[in-house]
Amino acid sequence: MASIRVENVEKTFGRFKALNGVSLEVRDQEFVVLLGPSGCGKTTLLRIIAGLEQADKGRVWIGDRDVTLLPPRARRIAMVFQNYAVFPHLTVYENIAFGLRMQKVSPEKLKANVERAAALMHIENLLGRYPAQLSGGQRQRVAVARALAVEPEVLLMDEPLSNLDALLRLEMRAELKRLLAESRTTTLYVTHDQVEAMSLADRIAVMNAGAIVQYDTPMRVYQEPASVFVGGFIGSPPMNFLRLRVEGQRVRLGSLDLEPPAEVGAEVLLGVRPEDLEVYPAEQPQSFAAQVLVVEPLGPHLLLTLNFAGQAFKATVPPDFPAAAGQTLWLRPQPSRLRWLEPGSGRAFATG
Ligand SMILES: Nc1ncnc2c1ncn2[C@@H]1O[C@H](COP(=O)(O)OP(=O)(O)OP(=O)(O)O)[C@@H](O)[C@H]1O
User: Are residues 58 and 185 in the same domain?
Assistant: First the structure.
């Protein structure tokens, strides 16, 4: 097992800059998720680490080895792809053994590694079957077992759950979390699914337009997004951003009198998550009024869309909360959960 270090990697396709000076460090045994919208460069970064793509600039280390110029097979990595390509004409055993046969390991080691990887993925009883006789989730586990069988120093995974239907995907997510925790392999995992990223990662590297825009634990990324982009990309519904005027270093929001960071200009964005707004049917001290535009019953809660001074935002309330379109409600944000951001750049102000 080993750490991964990427330093200042750039990659251009024609005139399109897919990676714009990316640096990233994944600690030994850490599980890091690369998260971002389609086209932001996640797969390109993973392929550069795997050696399937050459960077224009920058370096890649695995452990203390500079692998920048090494071919994929010399990097001691294993990859699991979206379409996980298990070979249909080979049994589960032979699928898992595939990489080991390529490496020409001894028959004893081959058998031991296949059995260990199969046990880790809990598919010992399926070794004699062919892929056509497996469920999607089982095939997925064969692909992960095959990757782990070669004892890679790092495991690279590119959207490994995206071919599964929604329910199986949910099940496999928890399975994978448990199984990979047992294997303790350093893992870099690509997804555009923010819930998957939150669920699996020790740390999330959020990417946008060829750059890493925040790298932190899931809870920090969720509660303290570095920008409007991150707050909007993570969380469903996303974080609300209210544009407010600053007067005499204060921001008035209904009867709330807030102190923004010292560096603010004439306007500021106030970021607050829907679940961090307390909602009341009658006027309260330290609150602001808003009109209900839409009520959506979602089961565990009602999702409200409200209007404050021409700006729409969301809040959640318990399912039995009396809310109807057209009504006025009063909202009080939890002070510790407020986020101040700069309207021009969308960046969060540093908090103390
Ligand atoms: N071989 C290539 N030739 C030209 N452009 C490419 C090539 N590979 C990737 N790109 C472009 O580089 C950008 C980043 O692609 P990449 O596959 O890394 O994105 P991604 O974040 O993984 O997206 P997705 O989630 O859709 O897979 C995209 O705009 C893509 O079209």
Answer: yes
Q: How far is the CA of 286 from the centre of ligand 1 (A)?
A: 48
Does some domain include residue 116? yes
3-class DSSP string for 38-71:
CCCCHHHHHHHHHCCCCCCEEEEEECCEECCCCC
What are the structure tokens assigned to 287, written together?
A: 């609150």
Average pLDDT over residues 60-69: 96
Count of structural domains, the chain: 2
- Rounded to a whole number of angstroms, the distance between the first and last alpha carbons of the chain is 36
Going by alpha carbons, the residue nearest to atom 24 of ligand 1 is 38
Quick: pLDDT tens for 28-58: 999 999 999 999 999 999 999 999 999 999 9
pLDDT category at 84 given cuts 50, 70, 90 is low
**Domain boundary, last residue among 228, 262, 281:** 228
| Ligand 1 contacts CB of residue 187 (under 6 A) | no
Q: Would the CB of 12 count as within 6 Å of ligand 1?
A: no
Total-model pTM: 0.91
Instruction: State whether the beta carbon of 42 lies less than 6 angstroms from ligand 1.
Output: yes
Tell me the best of 9, 10, 34, 43 to mutate to test the pocket of ligand 1, counting ligand atoms within 8 Å of each CB and taking the most: 43
> Are residues 255 and 200 part of one domain?
no
- Statement to judge: residues 66 and 196 lie in one domain: yes
Q: How far apart are CA 42 and CA 325, in angstroms?
A: 41
Closest residue (by CA) to atom 4 of ligand 1?
Answer: 13
Domain holding 22: CATH number?
A: 3.40.50.300
Domain boundary among 181, 203, 228: 228
Structure tokens at 236: 């469903």
